[in-house]
Amino acid sequence: MSGSLTEAATATPVSRIGLGLAAVGRPGYINLGRDRDLPAERTVEAMRRRSHDLLDAAYAAGVRYLDAARSYGRAEEFLADWLRARPDAAGDVVVGSKWGYTYVADWRMDAETHEVKDHSVATYERQREESQALLGDHLHLYQIHSVTPDSPALTDPALHARLARLAAEGVTVGISTSGPAQGDAIRAALEVEADGLPLFRTVQSTYNLLEPSAGAALAEAHAAGRTVIVKEAMANGRLAALDQAPPSLRRAVEETGATPDAIALAAVLRHPWVTVALSGAATEAQLRSNLAAASLRLPALDDLAEPPEAYWRRRSSLPWS
Q1: C-alpha neighbours within 13 Å on the C-beta side of residue 254
Q2: Cα(203)–Cα(189) distance, integer angstroms
Q3: 3-state secondary structure the chain
Q4: How far apart are CA 66 and CA 94, in angstroms?
Q5: CA-based radius of gyration for the chain
């Protein structure tokens, strides 16, 4: 692995922010505002160009962590193309991907099902081969996608043995979490060992002003020496648009002149246990706005937290567009 996430995160003043490719690796996703953010004709080549433009802009701005997944359509392919075309950058970034969801929408926005979850050994073996075929030695971090407390990935010794072999080859093994019981999943993952050593070295979780329930567990993970990556800091766009923002966030925008997404992201970065927070930008303007969070003095905000169950119900109801 060419450096650690922590090393990458200290490269420049904005490098605590990474770039996630969920919004640009496939034509449909659940982020709000995609009708404005992306071209109407979301061909493979149009999305490839958008991904490469964002990667160029992010790298130029000092971003050094790039995040993809098998279920993000062609995100790994787009990222691999970019890495091959920019060898100097390829040696300077940390690349993470995820397995456990299979993309099944066949590049259709109107598909009834977009991704299918399976944490079995068979899925791991298949998707690991697919990821490594594309990313090769650039695959530094491989995470189990959307672990919940009942996931067999937390208890399957055969899977743990295979993940331990991957770690022995130099790939960092981690988890991502989702759902209202993220804290329970994180704490369970911290207890998993292989050959007497902690297996999962990184944790990627949803944490934002509306859904901060995983915060205590993420702080525990950081204290235990794990890298903490925060995803969905803008709550799939709910905290990014002024007309969607809660009143307290709108007041903060008026007070600071900053954009709501930058304030939402700054509210995540203020926590010392956050190693990297992801931008899920779909445009270069969004990326620039997100990156402003690194130098933003955060204003006072009311408690905006929703009950976790209500937050995740609303998230699951967001349309793919």
Answers
A1: 7
A2: 9
A3: CCCCHHHHHCCCCCCCEEEECCCCCCCCCCCCCHHHHCCCCCCHHHHHHHHHHHHHHHHHCCCCEEECCCCCCCHHHHHHHHHHHCHHHHCCCEEEEEECEEECCCCCCCCCCCEEECCCHHHHHHHHHHHHHHHHHHCCEEEEEEECCCCHHHCCHHHHHHHHHHHHCCCEEEEEECCCCHHHHHHHHHCCEECCEECCCEEEEECCCCCCCCHHHHHHHHHCCCEEEEECCCHHHCCCCCCCCCHHHHHHHHHHCCCHHHHHHHHHHCCCCCCEEEECCCCHHHHHHHHHHHHCCCCCCCCCCCCHHHHHHHHHHCCCC
A4: 6
A5: 18
pLDDT tens digit string along 34-45? Answer: 889 998 899 999
User: What is the Cα–Cα distance from 52 to 276, expressed in whole angstroms?
Assistant: 21
Could you state, in chain order, the average pLDDT of each consecutive group of 10 residues for the chain (321 residues)? 46 69 95 88 96 98 97 98 97 96 94 96 98 97 98 98 97 98 98 96 98 98 97 95 88 94 97 97 97 92 96 95 89
Exposure of 153 in the CB half-sphere (CA atoms within 13 A) = 31
Query: Does the model's pTM come out above 0.90?
Result: yes
User: Which amino acid is residue 182, in one-letter code?
Assistant: Q
* CA distances from residue 203 to 102, 120, 142, 184 in whole angstroms, order as listed: 20, 19, 11, 13
**β-strand 115-117 against 101-103: which pairing, if any?**
antiparallel
State whether the Cα torsion 96-102-108-112 is positive or negative: negative
